[in-house]
Amino acid sequence: MKGRLKWVDGVCFMGETGSGHAVVMDGAPEGGGRNLGPRPMELLLMGTAGCTSYDVISILKKSRQDVRDCWVEMDAERADTEPKVFTKIHFHFVVVGRNLKPETVERAIKLSAEKYCSASIMLGKTADITHDFEVREDA
């Protein structure tokens, strides 16, 4: 995996992924930024949610679950002192579908957290990561 990060101005950077996608990262105005994009640590948290969501949806589809929608609400805490690593992360999954089996959703989340999601497993070295979920029936 490769990428490139270029300084733009102040604390603003343009990142380009190896797959050719770009993202702007910037800081808050009180930190010298212009608030033009998410903070790097926000992207790290979002990327982790994306990694685990990818796993969960993939596992549910392989389990022949009729998934119609899914999102993850994230809540994280960071250390007060440098390095301000994540110390707690909570992922709340909302999975919408038809006749979804809660035990299958729970299993998919557990497999992602313990076996498949590289980002979660890596961040789990410094943070206490918890998960919960709710299943909603599609109208």
TrEMBL record:
Question: What protein is this chain from?
Answer: OsmC family protein
The family database entries (Pfam families) matched by this protein are listed as:
OsmC
Q: Which organism is it from?
A: Crenobacter oryzisoli
Q: Which domain of life is it from?
A: Bacteria
The transmembrane residues are none
Q: Which PANTHER family match?
A: PROTEIN YHFA
Entry's InterPro entries? KH_dom-like_a/b, OsmC/Ohr_fam, OsmC/Ohrsf
Identify the NCBIfam families for this entry.
PRK10738.1
